[in-house]
Amino acid sequence: MPDPVFLSGDRVELRPIEEADLEFLQRHVNDPRVWRAIGRSKPLNRVQERAFFDDVVCSDESIQLLLVAESTPVGTIGLQSIDWVSSRAELGYWIAPDHQRNGYASDAVERIVTYGFDQLGLHRIAARVFACNEPSRRLLESVGFRQEGVHRDVEFIDGEHQNAYWYGLLEDEWRSETA
């Protein structure tokens, strides 16, 4: 029986991450094409992936979903560091390399932003993108995120320090763009 769909998109379905998904997550988060783009330079073993599942996926300060296209897991997306008092969260996502450039991330970002503003009552969603990940910067801008600042030389990836660009989207900006 397929796992329940939480949010349906045009290209992907977003469903809760389950223990059975940990192998997929560990395999892809250790792929250099993924860990470089998300600013992670250390490998993740099964115990650490399990800790991520227990501490982040199962947390009340996070909503983590698996992207599924035609019954195949293709990536993850989530709202983390949710601050319920200030009504804000940080968006994070990645797509497995063999499934990139199919519109899955765009579809998922649009769905989770809509969910964040309409269902969670968020006022602000932020996102961080590394300088080496230009496609993600374009994606955020296409949804309406605005670059707000740069953390210079914040991560050490591939032998050099990388800048992180911070983006933000306010609920009223998003509503005016989607109207």
From TrEMBL:
Segments forming a coiled coil: none
Q: Which UniProt keywords apply?
A: Transferase
* GO cellular component assignments: cytoplasm
User: What's a Gene Ontology MF term here?
Assistant: protein-N-terminal-alanine acetyltransferase activity
Report the residue ranges that make up the N-acetyltransferase domain in this protein.
12-172
Q: Record's InterPro entries? A: Acyl_CoA_acyltransferase (IPR016181), GNAT_dom (IPR000182), Ribosomal_N-acetyltransferase (IPR051908)
* Database matches in CDD domains: NAT_SF
Record Pfam families: Acetyltransf_3
**Superkingdom assignment:** Archaea
Q: Which SUPFAM superfamilies match?
A: Acyl-CoA N-acyltransferases (Nat)
The name on file for this protein is: Protein N-acetyltransferase, RimJ/RimL family
Question: What's the source species for this entry?
Answer: Natronorubrum thiooxidans
